[in-house]
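Give me structure tokens for this 478-residue protein.
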Amino acid sequence: MRHTKILATLGPATETEAQVQNLLAAGVNAFRLNFSHGDHDWHKSMYGRIREAAQKAGRSVAILQDLQGPKIRLGLIRGNHMELVTGASTILTTSPIEGTAERFATSYTELHLDVKPGNKILIDEGRIRLTVTRVAGTEIHCLVDRGGAVSSRKGLFLPGVKTRIPSLTEKDREDAVLGLALGVDYIALSFVRQAEDVTILRNWLLEKGGHVPIVSKIETVEALDNLDDIVKVSDGVMVARGDLGVEASLEWIPFYQKKIIKLANQYGKPVITATEMLESMIMNVAPTRAEVTDIANSILDGTDVMMLSGETAAGNFPVHAVESMAAVAETTEQNLFPFERGCLPLADQIAKPQASAMARLVAHASHEFNPKAIVVFTRTGYTAGLIAAERPRSSIYAFTPDHATYQRLSLLWGVIPRVLERNQGTSRMVRDMTAMLLNEGTLQLDDLILFLIGSSRDKTQNHSIRMAQAETIMQEVE
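Here you go.
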């Protein structure tokens, strides 16, 4: 059973119900709706198709809404083409003009207030590089360090520059309103720079009546400077290697990836590794050796979830991409993964130390006795997440009476969600969970099960651990 989860982005290549079903069959655990593309009607239809396909498959599937964030772009270019020549001078202005190689505009109207001489400006994911030489009013004079062809609306990056543009834009708010109405399971916040960005979104969601977990995308140098505080207030983080690779030197990306994953593991927060994991499979039916190694190394680093972007949104072989990722993950876990927490938890930051201690005991017992399954009853998913953070070898079957929790649990490492209403007695509930796993063929009567059992009187505390064979449990008298 694969523990590492797969998050796939939907797009033109995978927008039919049949294609969504094929992705689920190939091994997808969660879907990403990228709100940088597509209108609200398209996202509504995709949401419905995911839920319908998941219901037909009898599966728990999480849906992550990825907000666009404060994307800075160029304005319109005359004829939609200009050539910036290396060594030439040019002017970037915040005035709305039709651009030429001598003078062109940006959508960010306060750019001239944020940059100063010496700052770098990157265009089109870093293909074009400018250096600011002076700022005169709303006009930013630049030297072209690395030239090339430029078209309208290309992205603009400001590595190391602290901008005054808010992390949560008006478009993001409108999109999040839709996400709340639909019932998305996670919201990813783009271009997070500080913990306050996450807090602003969380408070706004609460005002709207939403309790959606927030995944902070780490894709700026400023976020790396504030990483500890950001991880503390987030429900999960994403190693967004695409924009991070534009903001920072590429040779630093492996270091940053390991740093982000390690800190997320310490706090017990799910971490998603994203961007170009199987980029060649957009055009080719098989991955490269380097991509296979990248997937394996991200798992060994401690990632909970691996994300596919263009591979499934616009690629020629989306199902093959998922199958390849799943196969590499399974092989890596079977032959290389140590199945143990890679770093010590930050105990002073754990909100519920008793629950954390119980999760560690469960993981230790799992390592010692190798039960067929770890079974836990959870209302919010918190306890299941703590166990997952300990990286036990056994699969974690998390039973919950809450439908929203049922969906969200599918994104957690090693967790297999099930729906079950809580009964009056603990013994009855243990038998019901065991019976369900026996009936579906997951367990045999002689299999060993490890339970984390909560008190029926105090639903907020898990108070005991039990280990027994399925047959013994089923023979017990009420």
